[in-house]
Amino acid sequence: MVTTSARADAAVVVRGLTKHYGDKRAVDGLDLDVARGECVAVLGPNGAGKTTTVEVLEGYRRRDGGEVAVLGQDPGTAGRDWRTHVGIVLQSADDAAEATVGELVRQFARYYPDPRDPAEVVAAVGLQDRERTRVRRLSGGQRRRLDVALGIVGRPELLFLDEPTTGFDPQARHEFWDLVHRLRDEGTTVLLTTHYLEEAERLADRVVVVAAGRVVGSGTPAALGGRAARSAVVRWVEDGAARELTTDAPTRVVAELAARWADRGLDEVPGLEVRRPTLEDVYLRMIGEAAGTTDGLPAATGATDAVRVGARVGVPA
Amino acid sequence: MSATTERRAGVTASPPARTSVRLPSTLRLGLARTQHEVRLFFRERDAVVFVFAYPVIMLAIFATVFGGQEDVAAPGVTFAQYFLPGMVATGVVLSSFQQLATTIAVERDEGGLKRLRGTPLPASAYFLGKVGQVLVTSLLQTALLLVVAAVVYDVPLPGDVARWVTFAWVWALGTAAGAVCGVAFSSVPRSGRSASAVVTPVVLVLQFVSGVFFAFDDLPSWMQSLASFFPLKWLAQGMRSVFLPDAAAAAEVGGSWQHGATAAVLVAYLVVGLVLGARTFRWTRRDAG
């Protein structure tokens, strides 16, 4: 339960949100809090209800049940004044092909009472050399940065970014992350949905994992899933059989193994590897459990990681 | 119900973050949108050729090919003079109905409408911008048609005020009815890509059955009756009453210009279009839930 004092400083409060499409429960009792100034990333597989949730918060969709407050108002009934404080970057838009970048940003600036300087916004997203370029001539990444420019020109307190870097090359993605960091430094609250774990790790103070319309985990990127989920796995081969031990003290386990083999007069523990689950492992296990899989880490991920560790060990330093 | 409301009120208890600065007025935003829309219209090559220039091109072709015909519908009326009112009416329908039905469908499909919905731009300012764009382009188009007809094809333009008054109300009602019907019809195409394929044939068929290419009284009577249900026939007839001598009224199917019926049909379309448009308008695609 949230206390009143916590709410006063919340940008987003969601309790028990539900949304059905026919028989399908797209969102099924979802809770979410975003504090002012915070950056929260919502992660989840396709069809988990991320976009539906965000579109309810943006005021595009009606909810079937639950309580929603965005900047203190119900987005289903909030008016123009509320929209001046909210910036929205949609998942896909390919409109206004014949307008130029500068024209479009200046046009959108006119809709707001206290906009940012359009030229500064164009420069902030790195499109200053494209100011007079028609939108249809922009690359996919430039197009997306224009979307962001249009989302922030009104000086929003809360910015929604729905899968903002899908289709970006690595350099464009890093530039985009720098831009989001700058917005955060200016105090903008950011609610981000993404498929990219690295993006969540780089940008978010907190990660919320959604599967089948519910929150299945939440925490800082480093602590997501709790201590148990982050336990290291030590593997080795003994008496011709693969052994595995899950532990919070891998150094001690490795030291004990080394001592055991030293007693046998051997320097190396065969097949020794230590691996810690990445955010991706934790994430995959969470959505796997939500989907009804109970056998821990998906086999494929474990295998990939083992190969990686093995290769690293195999190359002499 | 009241319990839910109370609980919701609990969540929304926190005060707005910032005291708001004055929002820009709807009228100012409507003008800003008009300017933006007109600029984009003239950059869209398809629209410039098939909406703006089309009636002028058709006038040029028909007037050149059939230029030798004299005494069309009434003594002293050249083919170009007879053809001009039909092209003025066609231009009005293209600039209002076809233009809005197509572009709004495309904007909806491309996500432009959804983007606007996420800003503080009021819906009324968006529609003011559309109306402004239609008025500006349609006025320029009609003016261009009249100039070309008068200068190149020696069509005499009316000299008395009464005819220009008729012209003004027929033009304004036709443009308004076409615009609201265009907004309503924009929900029919299932995608932006199919929009012009769905909208253009509707207008083209109307042009043929409404007698803008042929003398209306030469059409089979079932076609005449069919056309009477649609506004283009009445718009063209109203324009003929402006640009043809009164003697030509005898050649009309009804034997007169029927101004009352013209006004009634156009107003009916205006009202029906307004109601339908307001009920069916969507900011997002149909598949968006």
Automatic annotation (TrEMBL), chain A:
Transmembrane segments in this chain: where?
none
* One annotated GO molecular function: ATP hydrolysis activity
Q: How does it sit in the membrane?
A: Peripheral membrane protein
Q: Which domain of life is it from?
A: Bacteria
The record's listing under PROSITE patterns reads: ABC_TRANSPORTER_1, ABC_TRANSPORTER_2
Gene Ontology cellular-component annotations:
plasma membrane
Q: What is its main location?
A: membrane
The alphabetized UniProt keywords are:
Antibiotic resistance, ATP-binding, Cell membrane, Membrane, Nucleotide-binding, Translocase, Transport
Q: Where in the cell is it found?
A: Cell membrane
GO biological processes = response to antibiotic
The record's InterPro entries line, in alphabetical order, gives: AAA+_ATPase (IPR003593), ABC_transporter-like_ATP-bd (IPR003439), ABC_transporter-like_CS (IPR017871), ABC_transporter_ATP-binding (IPR050763), P-loop_NTPase (IPR027417)
Ranges for domain ABC transporter come to 12-237
Q: Name one Pfam family in it.
A: ABC_tran
What CDD domains does the annotation carry?
A: ABC_DR_subfamily_A
Write down what this protein is called.
ABC-2 type transport system ATP-binding protein
From TrEMBL, chain B:
Stretches assigned to the ABC transmembrane type-2 domain: 46-284
Q: Please give the Gene Ontology molecular function terms for this protein.
A: ABC-type transporter activity
**Source species:** Cellulomonas marina
One GO biological process term is:
response to antibiotic
| Protein's name in the database | Transport permease protein
For membrane topology, the record states:
Multi-pass membrane protein
Q: Which ranges does the record mark as transmembrane?
A: 47-67, 79-106, 127-152, 164-185, 197-216, 261-281
Where found in the cell?
Cell membrane; Membrane
